[in-house]
Write a structure and sequence with these properties.
There is one protein chain. With about 170 residues, the chain is an alpha+beta fold. It has 4 helices and 12 strands; from the N terminus they run ββββββαβαβαββββα. It has helices at about 60-75, 90-95, 115-120, 155-165; strands at about 5, 10, 15, 30, 35-40, 45-50, 80-85, 105, 120, 125-130, 130-135, 140-145. α2 links the parallel β7 and β8.
Length: about 170
Amino acid sequence: MRENITMGGNPIKLLGNEIKVNDKAPDFSAVNKDMTPFNFSELKGKLKIISVVPSVDTKICEFQTISFNEEATKHPEVVVLTISVDLPFAQQRFCVANDIENSIVVSDHRTLDFGMKYGFAIEDLRLLARGIVIVDKDETVKYVEYVKEVATHPDYDKALEFVKTLL
């Protein structure tokens, strides 16, 4: 549920369609770190963790991205996709500085296609709210967390335990 989401304790409004468990995962386009196009359909048939962060330049987003990158090495059959609205140049710099090599990091800055189709776009800020979406090999959403306070961590353990049930 994405009701009563706050950022710094202040209520925010999320735009787009709320994604729910058992929804068919919408395809979306974004931009890779090297400025090439990315389409979610490229990952079809794979188990996917979508890690949604407002900006890789914040401590919680940094921790979230690094943590899921480390988890990706433990489960090579799982694709970890981190998405933010950071410019691809900033994402590239962040990934190099933090040895992010096992995850795919993409930018939704151009069209907010992901943000609108999955309901993570924050009104008036052009940022994404924090959360996690897990999509199975059949492209069905199996897990969704819209973090209630954007400035806090998602429930990493719960999400990762859930992934193990899908392996």
